């Protein structure tokens, strides 16, 4: 770690470890993983930060950054399938945090493509399906989406999923509707989770964009993660060949296996969102003067800054330990849920304090913090709300399910 003075942030040398990694978690990484993290940091700082507010305002996706992002080699970072990087969970988490530290929408885009969509194929696909789709997805030549949530059912999806799949010769016929599906307006492959009419089990299907009967309509007027292209999907007699049914997805248990891993990604994204807001807030308080002094010199402002740093550091510590458990093959659902619930609550608190120390400027996009405040609201609710993740942990520690 470099000499970690707060002043370093004003220079924000992308090749250096930022002061906001206060307890030096990056030092836990092997050299090659730190090198990767540094490249992600440089890319996000140089290529994304300067253009992201404009895209956020227009609710457009910066397709122009995809070739550079592909060169980083971070899509499906933890997966060891064909063409995948096969790196550890800790570096995967720190990379997810790094992306969201600069922009939570871009972190979410990669969470959907490299985490949820590639993860579905990695964990639920046959060897042949992995060979077919994972290498071009890892190279980001094919972009993925993950269609689980429906207009009428979100938290209760394991029980209430209504999209149907009916076997018809060597194909399946899908009918139903999905909502909130990130990347779906332009993704090449959309993983659709549907209930088999025969055995009542939830199964995954890879539906190629342009397949007749699948219509993806962009959701407009979001107040959070505006850069992420979320879609409502109408599925009307969509014919999918059996070779596109994820061969190892036999029930919702398979879907849950994917979510356990990606929920950790979201915990890391939340820590990143909080960290980005904190860094912008600290920089601002050193530049803004009131009563003839930088506002950073006031005790009450320092109190908020230190509480923000403590939140970021505590979330990072919790997530880092869970990622180590994941690497050891010991991550349980309740571990990921605790990390997601804790990190998102602390994120929401932190971005609020960051906005507070910016005064009125906190609601202007040009100072970035306002974007983090808005984006935090979506991260707080997706991939399991605080309540749902709390119930998962509560069930684990009491042995009593309190879902209904
Ligand atoms: C920006 C964004 C991106 C998303 N991307 C995707 C995606 O790519 N793919 C995808 O499939 N989905 C995606 N989602 C959907 C997301 O996972 C759901 O929004 C989430 O699961 C919550 O479901 P819901 O919004 O329907 O809320 P609801 O389930 O309607 O919940 C409403 C409220 O009721 C509470 N509640 C529900 N049940 C209980 C209970 N038993 N006890 C106590 N409280 C309860 C909830 O915690 C919440 O506070 C995305 C959502 C957003 C906002």
From TrEMBL:
<dbReference type="Pfam" id="PF00441">
    <property type="entry name" value="Acyl-CoA_dh_1"/>
</dbReference>
<dbReference type="InterPro" id="IPR006091">
    <property type="entry name" value="Acyl-CoA_Oxase/DH_mid-dom"/>
</dbReference>
<comment type="similarity">
    <text>Belongs to the acyl-CoA dehydrogenase family.</text>
</comment>
<dbReference type="Pfam" id="PF02771">
    <property type="entry name" value="Acyl-CoA_dh_N"/>
</dbReference>
<dbReference type="InterPro" id="IPR009075">
    <property type="entry name" value="AcylCo_DH/oxidase_C"/>
</dbReference>
<dbReference type="InterPro" id="IPR037069">
    <property type="entry name" value="AcylCoA_DH/ox_N_sf"/>
</dbReference>
<feature type="domain" description="Acyl-CoA dehydrogenase/oxidase C-terminal">
    <location>
        <begin position="255"/>
        <end position="397"/>
    </location>
</feature>
<dbReference type="InterPro" id="IPR013786">
    <property type="entry name" value="AcylCoA_DH/ox_N"/>
</dbReference>
<dbReference type="InterPro" id="IPR009100">
    <property type="entry name" value="AcylCoA_DH/oxidase_NM_dom_sf"/>
</dbReference>
<protein>
    <submittedName>
        <fullName>Acyl-CoA dehydrogenase family protein</fullName>
    </submittedName>
</protein>
<dbReference type="InterPro" id="IPR006089">
    <property type="entry name" value="Acyl-CoA_DH_CS"/>
</dbReference>
<dbReference type="InterPro" id="IPR046373">
    <property type="entry name" value="Acyl-CoA_Oxase/DH_mid-dom_sf"/>
</dbReference>
<keyword id="KW-0285">Flavoprotein</keyword>
<dbReference type="Pfam" id="PF02770">
    <property type="entry name" value="Acyl-CoA_dh_M"/>
</dbReference>
<dbReference type="InterPro" id="IPR036250">
    <property type="entry name" value="AcylCo_DH-like_C"/>
</dbReference>
<keyword id="KW-0274">FAD</keyword>
<keyword id="KW-0560">Oxidoreductase</keyword>
<dbReference type="InterPro" id="IPR045008">
    <property type="entry name" value="ACX4-like"/>
</dbReference>
<feature type="domain" description="Acyl-CoA oxidase/dehydrogenase middle">
    <location>
        <begin position="145"/>
        <end position="238"/>
    </location>
</feature>
<feature type="domain" description="Acyl-CoA dehydrogenase/oxidase N-terminal">
    <location>
        <begin position="31"/>
        <end position="141"/>
    </location>
</feature>
